[in-house]
């Protein structure tokens, strides 16, 4: 950021300088007409929102600062080879015995937490205990933690941090005051060397035995348990809102197991993503994270295996006074003041057969109403989001097929999930939640008929060889799908004529697009399509919140996706204004339905995509232009309803190729900045670029 772009920015200032290209060689010029007198509803900061869930160790490793796996000993401890499968590409570090296997047994009679606790049997001067390797340690860096122990007073227990093979390549913390009852002992270390395979050892000598209830290790610079590096980067994005804890994970999650003393929260097997969850990041920690990121919380309640009473209890835990039963529990857990969380989602993708606790629409509408009434009884001020699905969603995942016998359900039919919620739960919905995942280089072929056998989405996905601009438009078309569906609902459902329920696209992503410049062009088109419909779209949640950063165990950096969100959040205005043009988006190439809307997404400035907005203070007009083409594009600009001073700035995001990326070890996609002077009536927009122009208003 910040390097001068004057050498690469091509624009024509109206100062008597004309293009020297001949008429025959000039490409078609695109006319862009901006009318600042025709404004839309403001762009909510929540449209830049993010979504995250507990998928394996996603949160626990990217945001939470804990360095140890299985720190509360869900698994038995053994030296035998493990058959544990990787989750999200990573196999968790294992605890191994120090000494023979039989020196460590799992005590299930009186465990400290969970189903069992390691009991270490001592053998005189020979060390016995447990160790975990695979820790990333850096020379001179401080680490803090704790260990929960109980044992015979004759046992001599130490905890060591090890960064090398020599006898001096370790720091040893002796434990004093060991007794029959469990106690927590603080740990402090400073690594004397670099290692990506450091280890922690908890070992004892002497007579008798000792139990290890739990152990924790974090970098000492953590912020209330969270990584300083990753959270600081994500705070820069000012995302408005984060949605949590799921996601599919939600439907088998018991929130009450993730509050209170973290060391006493039982580790649980998550059957959704087939991984152990330590329950270290629960409701209270999520609220700490929201404070660190400077965004508002959006919590979804479990409407899968969960029940309305549990959901109401969670609302009371979060928002109830300290005199209420759950508010009293929150206060006892160190948070006396209510959180006053406004945004609450009921369930996640409950329309999907993959969802734990999925049920027929005719039953689910009853469940939704039970949840809404119970939650509002606790706090009438909350805003409730229902888990919706428009016909495109029901088609692409084969959900309408077993209900109505065809891929694309008719509006108002039993296969139209949203219609059922709108008509049976209207008074209990403030906003409808919608999700979409678009798949790079593929379209859903519904026109070739129903395939034989059980439904498989893969059997309907067809690879598409298409120009870059059409490839980048695909996820924006899913936004357009939702808008067209709601236009239909507003016509068909009388209640929506008097109270228009808006939508939140609180899960969206372009799967397989890549975290590079190519993917950024597509994500930018999604944002701009949402900006065109701010009367309807009030919130969004990009999947995942951590996809804006590259990180490993010790480092983090904003990546290409993060740069994109930061570009728009920092420099694009908040009050959208009308943009017209002379080059409409082409008509659909493929049959309408499923992932193909009736009208393709985009502005009438094809092949570039243009949106405009006034800044919140009304002092400037901003113009965002996406050129998802590998050639420059010529634009002629006109402005109505506003007089400009001729001064401004431009920020442009681009790189040398579509595969260019920025992140750890790469800096190929950059945002360049340049001043603007003179009255701009023409622009030459650089290829494969996203540019935001800010013009001062007189």
List its salient traits.
Jelly Rolls, single chain, globular, Immunoglobulin-like, 698 residues, ten-stranded mixed beta sheet, TIM Barrel, 3 domains, 13 helices, eight-stranded parallel beta barrel, alpha+beta, 20% helix, disordered N terminus
Explain what this protein looks like in three dimensions.
The chain has 698 residues and is α+β, with helices and mostly antiparallel strands. The chain has 3 domains: 11-41 and 577-697, Golgi alpha-mannosidase II (Immunoglobulin-like, Sandwich), CATH 2.60.40; 45-62 and 223-440 and 467-572, Glycosidases (TIM Barrel, Alpha-Beta Barrel); 95-219, Galactose-binding domain-like (Jelly Rolls), CATH 2.60.120.260. It is built from 13 helices and 36 strands. Strands 1-35-30-2-27-28-29-36-31-34 form a 10-stranded mixed β-sheet, with helices on one face. The protein has an 8-stranded parallel β-barrel with strand order 3-14-17-18-19-20-23-24, surrounded by 4 helices. Strands 4-7-12-9-10 form a 5-stranded antiparallel β-sheet, with no helix packed on it. A hairpin with a 5-residue loop joins β28 and β29. α4 packs parallel to α6, α6 (361-378) packs across α9 and α12 (517-531) packs parallel to α13. It is globular and about 85 Å long.
Q: Into which percentage range does the β-strand content fall?
A: 25-35%
Distance between the termini: 28 Å
Count of helix runs: 13
Portion of residues in helices?
A: 10-25%
β-strand number = 36
Shape: globular
For the record, the CATH class of the largest domain is Alpha Beta
The structural class is alpha+beta
């Amino acid at each position: 950021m910040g390097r001068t772009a004057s050498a690469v920015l091509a624009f024509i200032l109206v100062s008597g300088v004309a293009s020297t290209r001949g008429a025959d060689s000039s490409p078609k010029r695109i006319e862009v007409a901006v009318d600042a007198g025709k404004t839309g509803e403001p762009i909510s900061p929540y449209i830049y929102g993010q979504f995250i869930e507990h998928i394996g160790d996603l949160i626990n490793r990217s945001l939470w600062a804990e360095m140890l796996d299985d720190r509360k000993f869900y698994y038995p401890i053994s030296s035998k080879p493990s058959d544990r499968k990787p989750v999200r590409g990573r196999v968790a570090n294992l605890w191994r015995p120090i000494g023979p296997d039989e020196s460590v047994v799992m005590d299930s009679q009186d465990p400290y937490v969970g189903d069992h606790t390691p009991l270490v049997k001592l053998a005189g001067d020979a060390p016995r205990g447990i160790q975990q390797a695979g820790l990333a340690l850096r020379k001179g860096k401080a680490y803090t933690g704790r260990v929960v122990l109980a044992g015979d007073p004759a046992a001599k227990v130490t905890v060591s941090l090890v960064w090398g093979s020599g006898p001096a390549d370790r720091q040893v913390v002796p434990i004093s005051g060991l007794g029959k009852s469990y106690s927590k002992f603080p740990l402090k270390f400073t690594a004397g060397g670099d290692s990506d395979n450091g280890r922690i050892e908890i070992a004892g000598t002497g007579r008798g035995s000792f139990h290890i209830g739990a152990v924790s290790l974090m970098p000492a610079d953590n912020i209330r348990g969270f990584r300083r590096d990753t959270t600081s980067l994500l705070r820069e994005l000012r995302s408005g809102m984060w949605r949590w804890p799921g996601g599919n994970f939600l439907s088998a999650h018991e929130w009450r197991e993730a509050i209170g003393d973290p060391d006493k929260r039982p580790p649980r097997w998550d059957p959704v993503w087939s991984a152990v969850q330590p329950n270290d990041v629960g409701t209270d920690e999520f609220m700490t994270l929201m404070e660190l990121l400077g965004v508002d919380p959006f919590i979804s309640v479990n409407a899968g295996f969960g029940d309305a009473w549990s959901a109401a209890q969670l609302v009371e835990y979060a928002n109830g006074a300290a005199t209420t039963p759950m508010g009293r529990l929150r206060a006892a857990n160190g948070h006396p003041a209510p959180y006053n969380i406004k945004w609450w989602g009921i369930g996640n993708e409950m329309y999907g057969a993959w969802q734990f606790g999925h049920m027929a629409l005719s039953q689910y509408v009853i469940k939704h109403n039970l949840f809404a009434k119970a939650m509002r009884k606790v706090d009438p001020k909350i805003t409730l989001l229902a888990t919706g699905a428009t016909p495109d969603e029901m088609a692409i995942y084969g959900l309408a097929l077993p209900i109505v016998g065809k891929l694309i359900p008719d509006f108002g039919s039993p296969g139209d999930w949203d219609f059922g919620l709108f008509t049976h739960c209207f008074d209990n919905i403030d906003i409808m939640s919608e999700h979409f995942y678009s798949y790079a280089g593929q379209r859903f072929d519904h026109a070739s008929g129903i395939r034989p056998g059980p439904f498989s989405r893969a059997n309907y996905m067809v690879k598409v060889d298409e120009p870059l601009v059409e490839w980048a438009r695909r996820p924006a078309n899913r936004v357009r799908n939702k808008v067209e569906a709601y236009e239909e609902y507003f016509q068909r459902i009388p209640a929506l004529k008097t109270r228009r329920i808006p939508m939140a696209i609180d899960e969206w992503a372009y799967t397989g697009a890549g975290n590079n410049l190519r993917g950024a062009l597509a994500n930018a088109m999604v944002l701009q399509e949402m900006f065109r419909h701010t009367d309807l779209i009030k919130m969004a949640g990009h999947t995942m919140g951590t996809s804006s950063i590259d990180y490993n165990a010790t480092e983090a950096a904003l990546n290409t996706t993060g740069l994109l969100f930061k570009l728009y959040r920092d420099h694009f205005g908040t009050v959208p204004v009308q943009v017209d043009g002379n080059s409409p988006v082409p008509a659909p190439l493929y049959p309408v339905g499923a992932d193909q809307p009736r009208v393709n997404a985009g502005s009438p400035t094809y092949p570039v995509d243009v949106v405009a907005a006034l800044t919140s203070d009304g002092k400037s007009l901003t113009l965002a232009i996406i050129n998802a083409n590998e050639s420059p594009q010529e634009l002629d600009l006109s402005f109505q309803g506003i007089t400009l001073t001729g001064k401004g700035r431009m920020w442009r995001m681009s790189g040398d190729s579509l595969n260019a990326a920025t992140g750890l070890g790469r800096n190929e996609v950059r945002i360049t900045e340049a001043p603007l002077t003179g009255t701009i009536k023409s622009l030459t927009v650089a290829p494969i670029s996203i540019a935001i122009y800010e013009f001062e208003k007189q």
